[in-house]
Amino acid sequence: MSNLLKTNGILLSIPEGDFFLNYKDYPWFKNAQINHVFDVEMEGDHAVRWKAFYILSDIR
After folding, report:
1. What is the pLDDT of residues 4-48, one digit of tens each?
2. CB-based contacts of 26, cutoff 8 Å, min separation 6
3. pTM
């Protein structure tokens, strides 16, 4: 799993594929600390969790 910061969002690359999370739909990432954005882990087969933001997101 990896993340890539871009000017308009985050590219999240996980075993299920690549997902683009734009700042318009996910505004809490825009001004976040980089270490918080990169602190993401899989939760089950279809969800990711960011501990710093208390976010659990389904990626199906």
Report:
1. 677 899 988 888 888 899 999 999 889 999 899 888 888 888 888
2. 9, 10
3. 0.74
Q: Which helix (H) or strand (E) holds 9?
A: strand 9-14
Backbone angles phi, psi at 47, to 5 degrees: -140, 150
Tell me phi and psi for residue 19, to 5 degrees.
Answer: -130, 130
Q: Give, rounded to a whole angstrom, the gap between the first and last alpha carbons of the chain.
A: 16
DSSP track, 10-59: EEEEETTEEEEEETTT-GGGTTS-HHHHH-EEE-SSSEEEEGGGTEEEE-
What are the tokens at 29? 């990432």
